[in-house]
């Protein structure tokens, strides 16, 4: 596959690029400052693109003289502070282009869009046990991004919610997979390494499941 990763320089994006290119996929590494991304890796093509520029985004995803069209797009962008308008607008632009070129979209979103494990009627975003008031806007933006995916009539989109904690770590190659409810381990922790999340991203692209909202977590064994 040719997999475009928008957010290539990020914590998640860089690991998805490593995982996908190691498995032999061609990767289009998209971000505003792509220089230095996997230099010399023949499977990785860095492309400078600002996600707010629809023409540049279209050219990057649909192909140009330097590279072919994407078969799949991994959207894994983030801004600090959170900018819901940017997130929703970027998601809509990517979905529109992907629908036109027939590419599948995997959005790496937020845990807030999931149901609370002990209170299924309560979204994680609305549960102070997981989301303190200070990061509620981040969680709300993630939900808006999920709604954008769900309401897009034409695009083939799967939204991957991480567990509560997602951080750089070790690649074990294994993980637990769920759908719309936050996964918590026997130790009470809800977490995964960015490396294992990247494994799950590429697995989902290689072997698409039936669910439009999925989540993953550490497999729970040492
Ligand atoms: N527990 C959780 O729910 C949890 C935890 C962590 C992350 N996440 C989610 O995981 C996803 C990835 O997060 P991350 O930690 O990997 O983010 P990150 O490390 O901050 O990286 C963000 C990426 O977005 C790119 N970007 C930002 N604005 C852009 C623009 N205008 N045009 C093109 N690219 C742009 C950046 O590249 P440039 O600046 O070079 O353009 C960078 O590659 C996000 O959706 C985040 O919310 C969820």
Characterize the structure shown.
The chain is an alpha/beta fold. The protein has a single domain (2-217), classed as Rossmann fold (3-Layer(aba) Sandwich). Helix content is 31%, strand content 23%. It is built from five helices and twelve strands. The chain has an eight-stranded mixed sheet, with helices on both faces. A two-stranded antiparallel sheet has the order 6-7. A hairpin with a 2-residue loop joins strand 6 (115-116) and strand 7 (119-123). The radius of gyration is 16 Å and the shape is globular. It starts with a strand and ends in a 5-residue tail after the last strand. Bound molecules: NADP nicotinamide-adenine-dinucleotide phosphate (NAP).
Count of DSSP-assigned helices: 5
Q: Which ligands are bound?
A: NADP nicotinamide-adenine-dinucleotide phosphate
Overall pLDDT, averaged?
A: 94
The class by helix and strand makeup works out as alpha/beta
- What is the H/E order? EHEEHEHEEEHEEEEHE
The poorly predicted ranges are: none
- Please summarize the sheet with the most strands: 8 strands, mixed
Largest sheet strand order:
3-2-1-4-5-8-12-10
- The second-level CATH architecture is 3-Layer(aba) Sandwich
Give the overall form.
globular
Gap from first CA to last CA: 32 Å
CATH topology: Rossmann fold
How much of the sequence is in beta strands? 15-25%
- Just give the CATH class: Alpha Beta
DSSP, total strands: 12
Q: What count of structural domains? A: 1
Work out the radius of gyration. Answer: 16 Å
Concise structural overview:
This protein has five helices and twelve strands. The chain has 222 residues and is an alpha/beta fold.
